Amino acid sequence: MKNDRHGKAKILTQAEIQLLFSQGFQLDRDRALFGICLFSACRIREACTLRAADAYDAAGRVLPRLTIRKGNTKGKLATRSIPIISDLRVLLTNYHPPSGQPYLFPGRFGEHFQPDSADKALRKACKLVGLIGISTHSFRRTALTQMSDNRVPLRVIQEVSGHRNLEQLQTYIEVRDEQVLGAVTGLSMLSPLPQSEKYEFPELNQPQDSAQPDGVTQEAGEQG
Question: Does the pLDDT of residue 97 top 80, yes or no?
Answer without folding.
Answer: yes
